[in-house]
Each structure stands twice: as C-alpha cells, then as structure tokens.
Amino acid sequence: MTGTPLFERMALIGIGLIGSSLAQVARQRGLVGEIAISTRSPETLRRAEELDLGDIYSLDAAVAVEGADLVILCVPVGANESVAKSIAPGLKKGAILTDVGSTKGSVMEQVSPHVPDGVHFIPGHPIAGTEESGPDAGFATLFDQRWCILTPPENVDSEALEKLSAFWRGCGSDVDKMDAKHHDLVLAIVSHLPHLIAYNIVGTADDLETVTKSEVIKYSASGFRDFTRLAASDPTMWRDVCLHNKDAILEMLSRFSEDLSAMQRAIRWGDGQTLFDLFTRTRSIRRSIIEAGQETDAPDFGRHAKD
Ligand SMILES: NC(=O)c1ccc[n+]([C@@H]2O[C@H](COP(=O)([O-])OP(=O)(O)OC[C@H]3O[C@@H](n4cnc5c(N)ncnc54)[C@H](O)[C@@H]3O)[C@@H](O)[C@H]2O)c1
Ligand SMILES: O=C(O)C(=O)C[C@]1(C(=O)O)C=C[C@@H](O)C=C1
User: Fold this and answer.
1) How far is the CA of 263 from the centre of ligand 2 (A)?
2) pLDDT per residue over 274-286, tens digit each?
3) Which CATH architecture has domain 7-178?
4) I need a surface site. Which of 7, 176, 219, 268 has the fewest CB within 10 A?
C-alpha cells in the first residue's frame, strides 16, 4: 500500500508473536504513520526496541495509547480487562480500540465496561499463528491469506468498522464478521480442541515414558510429531483460552468424548465397517480442503485461496 496511511498512530499493547507481526506488516506496507509499543516487562520492551519494531516505547500502556487513532490489545485474553482499565484515561476520542484475542465473548464482557464514550471498540481475531511466542517470533507475512474475524457490537459505527476491516485487508487477511458467541463455538472445535488434544496426548506419552523408556522420543518422527508442535504453544495463552471459553470448550469436549467412546466401542466389537466409514469421511474432508485451494505443506495449510 502507498499514499496516506490508514491510521496516523497505532498503539500495540503487548508485543509478542502477534503484536510484533502487526508492527512489521503495518510498517512494511505503510498502513500506519507511527507505532507506539507498550508491554509489561522491561526486557520484552527493550527487545522490541532492539528489533526496531516501533517509534515510541513505554512501560505505561496509558502513555502509549495517547494520541493513537488505532489501539490493538495483543496480550493473553486474561490480561485484557486490567489493560483496558489502565488505558481508558489515555484513549483519544474517535479512536478505534480492538484486540486479537483467541476468545471473543469474554473479551467483549471484560473490555466494554471500560471503553470511554466516543471510542469505537471492535473486537477481532486473526486466525493465524504459530507455536512460538515473544517479539522475535513475529513476521510480516503471518496474516497473508488468513481470515481475520471481527465481532462488532450491534451499535457499531460503520465507518470505524470499514476502517478496521481495511487495516486487516492491508495486513493480507480476508475479513469476516460474526457474533462473538458463534465465534467462540466455532473456534472451540477448529482451534481450541485440537490444542487440548495435543496437550493431552503429549502429556500421556510423557507419562508413559517411564514405561516405554526412550521409545516415545525414538519413534516420534511421524504423526506424534505434529501433535508436539501444537503442544509446544504458549502455556499462558492457552490457559487463558481455556478459562475464557469454558462453556464452548466443555460442550465440544463432551461431544468429542462421546465420539471417541463410539470409536472405542467399534474397535472393541470388531466393527470394521464403522471405522472404515469414519476414516473415509475424514479423509475426504482433508482432500476437499486442499482442492479448495489450500497448500499441502504444513506451515501454509491454513491459508485460503484468493478469489
Ligand atoms: N499465538 C497464536 O497463535 C495466536 C493467534 C491468534 C491470536 N492470538 C491471541 O493473541 C494474543 C497474543 O498472543 P501472542 O501469541 O502474541 O502471545 P505472546 O506470549 O507472544 O505475547 C504476549 C505479549 O503480551 C504481554 N503481556 C502479557 N500480559 C500483559 C499485561 N498484563 N500487560 C501488558 N502486556 C502483557 C507479554 O509481555 C507479551 O509481550 C492472545 O490473546 C492470543 O489469544 C494468538
Ligand atoms: O498454527 C498454529 O500454530 C496455531 O495454533 C494458530 C491458531 C489456530 O489454532 O489455528 C491458534 C490460535 C489462534 O487463536 C489462532 C490460530
């Protein structure tokens, strides 16, 4: 993008994988004029400065948001309420306040009460990430050909919504809008449960290690390896996701356990047809995703085809 930036000053609160990626893409593609960065720990802020991610740095989030027309909360979802409380006095009238949290219902509940009149709060969630965390993990192309879901409140200002959508499109994403509750249900099955299954299977294998000696490590070159990538994801982030999307995750977990029991029963009773039918159905799902234009190599698998 060339010409006038969409926003004069963007403030990023939290500068890990997502904050750092946003800083890099926004600067590279000229989406914002200046970038102000705040985060909780002095070491991380110093690292962001060494990486030259921004123009203004402050440990005080309320100072960082002063004069910003776009403020993005890039902290674990459990930290959003205290951050919202602390930045409220510094927010500029007319500014857009958004976030990137993996859950949306709880973020809306926690942040909305602290948003001053005249500030447009529009929650968001880029469906893009890796198992890495911290400012060094960020990269400018993270959001390319990924979805970004916005969950605007009913009374949203349409101009602010369009401006935020344009920002995410500038980051390379396609933008979808949906209700926060629906978002949380969908993400519980496509993102939260896969992570919980990975944490669980790797934990179980680790417990078995004492029984199987080094075999878990020795033979983990194939399917198990894919689980270890997800299970290496940030513990704080995923603890918060579980605590802040409790109902939807519990609902999906109970459905999942029922289906697992059905599979267990089929194996116990030698019901090969049931197993074969299920495996055939799931194989065709992956194939149809690939045919729809997605890449086959693991890091790019979630990228979708451009129209
Ligand atoms: N990692 C992913 O794959 C991914 C993808 C999409 C969305 N998200 C969401 O994005 C958000 C950030 O995730 P990330 O992967 O960038 O995490 P991260 O651990 O890499 O970075 C988090 C940042 O927040 C800071 N922080 C933590 N608590 C804070 C507080 N109370 N006040 C100020 N700063 C604080 C940390 O110092 C760090 O700079 C989370 O809400 C997560 O759910 C993550
Ligand atoms: O690719 C990964 O490593 C991710 O876990 C990214 C992923 C996902 O589940 O797709 C994880 C959490 C986010 O909220 C969004 C994206």
Assistant:
1) 27
2) 999 999 999 999 8
3) 3-Layer(aba) Sandwich (3.40)
4) 268
Tokens of 80: 């959003």
Phi/psi of residue 303, nearest 5 degrees: -75, 140
Domain spans in the chain, listed from the N-terminal domain onward: 7-178, 182-270
Q: State if residue 173 touches ligand 2 by the CB under 6 angstroms criterion.
A: no
pLDDT of res. 300: 52
Residue 298 per-residue DSSP state: G
Whether ligand 2 lies within 6 angstroms of the CB of 198 is answered as no
Average pLDDT rounded to a whole number, residues 225-231: 92
Instruction: Kindly give the number of the ligand 1 atom that is closest to the alpha carbon of 102.
Output: 43
Which residues make Cβ contacts (< 8 Å) with residue 238, sequence separation at least 6? Answer: 195, 199
Same fold, 7-178 and 182-270: no
Is the CB–ligand 2 distance for residue 97 below 6 Å?
A: no
ipTM rounded to 2 decimals: 0.98
Calculated CA dihedral for residues 184, 186, 190, 192, nearest 10 degrees: 20
Once rounded to an integer, what is the mean pLDDT over residues 66-81?
98
Return the HEC string of 21-64: HHHHHHHHCCCEEEEEEECCCHHHHHHHHHCCCCCEEECCHHHH
Whether the Cβ atoms of residue 22 and residue 82 lie closer than 8 Å to each other: no
Q: Could you tell which of 12, 20, 37, 39 is best to mutate to test the pocket of ligand 1, judged by most ligand atoms within 8 Å of the CB?
A: 39
